[in-house]
Design goal:
Largest sheet: 4 strands, antiparallel
Structural class: alpha+beta
Helix content: 10-25%
Strand content: 35-45%
Number of helices: 5
Distance between the termini: 80 Å
Radius of gyration: 23 Å
Number of strands: 28
Strand order of the largest sheet: 1-28-27-26
Shape: globular
């Protein structure tokens, strides 16, 4: 059953970093977004309007990668200062430090159970860590150049890594053996990740291409030449049907994996788009760029495909109270969805019947401009579920609740005013410090 696709829309944008944004991730609760930057800061942005962003200072050099833990209670960051930090994303900004590598740490990733971290570094190693014990477990050592990215598979049994030696390696976490290497890319591999089913991987490269492999058969399934410059990052939609990419050509591209074609080209960033990530539910995605801006987009186009997947997942979770059964249900419904659109499937999504696609040829007719509203705010899935209902609520209770809501609005406005004043004070203080430094320098030079 086909339906008309709605275009993705730009919902919010944030500006606060003082240099290129290197990494972005959305909290599973959809209340926060974490970003890392070349300005050495980690920032946590609040999706709710009027709420201040948190700027976390601790790294001594550029922050290369950030990710929320599956629970959303921690944020991991990797830095050029050779350390990894675990932060509590609250106003206090407490963190613990892993002295992780002997070179820049370019990537950090939580396992799906939140118990382990995998990091990738310019010291040519991939390392695995225990989160709660905060200790190093083991290294994976077969890369012969910088390792730019490493990720756990959805079930946590495998690790994929990629880097400047132009290879992608699949590792068995238990045996610590490299079980396969892919060599098809003509440039360094900037990013790699697992398909939600765990049966495929996708990689982005400096050769301007994105490739998708089936890791069960070690077979190249798809090859996209949609970008005209280095592809910096990618993210799978949770349904597994779509892949979004970010490139130095300043665009984001959304690829339809079932049909093997380019679906959308989004022009938002002024300069290279450096990173992109879907939310855990897939209804939003966020991107960052060298223009120091974070953009939050509403997906829209995925509603028809993913609605049934989400519904079956919720049913399974409510009946069994277990996430794993929800995942099994969602995969089975995804298989049915895939078949209805003409792509055969054995486990999750199988792309083996789709021909290799040089998408560039078809991109002109499929490219749609992004719609940018002037003043919009993001409504998360939870806020949609909390719309007032008049089903038998007593009048007195309704009146009391309305009064409380009014008082909360007044408080929110008051806090917003205080926030603005605090921001002004911070700006004035910064000016004073800058002036003081200039005077000190002038005094030194005059001597």
């Amino acid at each position: 059953m086909s339906s008309v696709l709605e275009d993705p829309t730009l919902e919010r944008h944030f500006k606060g970093h003082r240099d290129t944004i290197t990494s972005v991730d959305l909290n599973p609760n959809m209340k926060q977004i974490a970003t890392g930057s070349m300005d050495s800061c980690l920032m946590v942005w609040n999706m709710k309007a009027q709420m201040r962003a948190y700027r976390f200072v601790g790294h001594k050099d550029a922050v290369m990668s950030v990710q929320f833990s599956p629970s959303g209670h921690l944020v991991a960051s990797a830095s050029r200062d050779k350390t990894v930090r675990l932060w509590v994303p609250s106003v206090k900004g407490e963190s613990t430090v892993f002295k992780a590598h002997t070179g820049t740490v370019r990537s950090v990733n939580f396992s799906s159970d939140g118990q382990s971290l995998v990091t990738a570094s310019d010291d040519k190693t991939v390392k695995v860590w225990a989160v709660h014990r905060q200790r190093f477990l083991f290294s994976l050592n077969q890369h012969i150049n910088w390792v730019r990215c490493a990720k756990f598979s959805p079930d946590g049994r495998l690790i994929v890594s990629a880097g400047d030696d132009k290879t992608i390696k699949i590792w068995d976490k238990t045996s610590r053996d490299c079980i396969h290497s892919f060599y098809e890319h003509g440039g360094y591999v900037s990013y790699v990740d697992f398909h939600p089913s765990g049966t495929c991987i996708a990689a982005a490269s400096s050769d301007n291409t994105v490739k998708v492999w089936d890791i069960r058969m070690n077979k190249l399934l798809q090859h996209y030449q949609a970008h005209t410059a280095v592809v910096n990052g990618l993210s799978f939609h949770p349904s597994g049907n779509y892949l979004i990419t970010a490139s130095n050509d300043s665009t984001l591209k959304i690829l339809d994996l079932l049909e093997g074609r380019l679906l959308y080209t989004l022009h938002g960033h002024q300069g290279p788009a450096t990173c992109v990530a879907f939310s855990r539910a897939g209804d939003y995605f966020a991107s960052g760029g060298s223009d120091e801006q974070v953009m939050v987009w509403k997906t829209n186009f995925d509603a028809a495909d993913y609605e049934e997947v989400l519904r079956s997942q919720q049913r399974a979770t409510s009946v069994n109270g277990a996430v794993q059964s929800g995942e099994r249900q969602s995969r089975s419904s995804l298989r049915a969805s895939s078949r209805s659109r003409g792509a055969e499937s054995s486990e999750g999504v199988d792309f083996s019947d789709i021909p290799l696609s040089h998408v560039e040829k078809r991109s002109v007719s499929q490219t749609r401009p992004s719609q940018v509203p002037k003043d919009t705010s993001v409504s998360s899935p939870t806020s949609r579920q909390q719309q007032p209902q008049d089903n038998g609520v007593p009048a007195a209770l309704a009146s009391t609740l309305e009064h409380i809501v009014c008082q909360l609005d007044v408080l929110t406005q008051t806090v917003a005013i205080l926030e603005q004043r605090l921001t002004l004070t911070e700006d004035k203080l910064r000016e004073c410090i800058d002036n003081q430094q200039m005077i000190t320098l002038q005094l030194r030079t005059s001597k």
